[in-house]
Write a structure and sequence with these properties.
The protein is of the alpha+beta class and about 150 residues long. The protein has a single domain, classed as Sandwich (Immunoglobulin-like). About 20% of the residues lie in helices and about 35% in strands.
């Protein structure tokens, strides 16, 4: 019994302090992620609500995509999520995309270099943060436009 030794009180205290610090950092990062910065558009409306108002008509034909913004919201960019054989690839539409985005009533036609069975076009909008900086916001996939290839 005399040869058995336990952890010294100094090492135990250091371990307890380290565990408390790690837990505090985890809680801090969790709370911080819940308080994300709001991005607004137009008259101060949260940009997440504006995503519902995006209306785009689109079609695909032999490597080219044709789009028309028939809604009242300018679209800064579109991301194409292409599905093929159970895999997904997301690519932004950049070649020939209008510099200021696809405005109301605007049209776009350009090549897309991916192949697959279907494509989901996810709108990316530009909004303003509380400190008046422009920031891009990618809408949720449920607001995307599905096109069969």
């Amino acid at each position: 019994m005399k040869n058995k030794r336990g952890i010294s009180p100094v090492i135990a205290t250091v371990l307890l302090v380290a565990i408390v610090i790690v837990i505090a950092l985890i809680v801090f990062s969790w709370v911080r992620s819940m308080n994300e910065e709001a991005i607004t558009k137009f008259d101060g409306t949260n940009i997440k609500l504006i995503c519902e108002e995006v209306v785009v008509d689109g079609s695909y034909s032999s490597g080219f995509i044709y789009l028309s913004n028939t809604g009242n919201v300018p679209i800064y960019q579109l991301k194409a999520k292409v599905e093929s054989a159970g895999a997904y690839e997301t690519v932004p539409l950049t070649e020939g995309w209008p510099e200021g985005g696809l405005l109301q009533g605007g049209t776009y036609s350009g090549p897309i270099s991916v192949t697959g069975e279907k494509m989901l076009l996810i709108p990316v909008l530009i909004g303003t943060t509380s400190d008046n900086q422009e920031r891009a916001y990618t809408c949720e996939e449920r607001y995307g436009i599905e096109i069969f290839m």
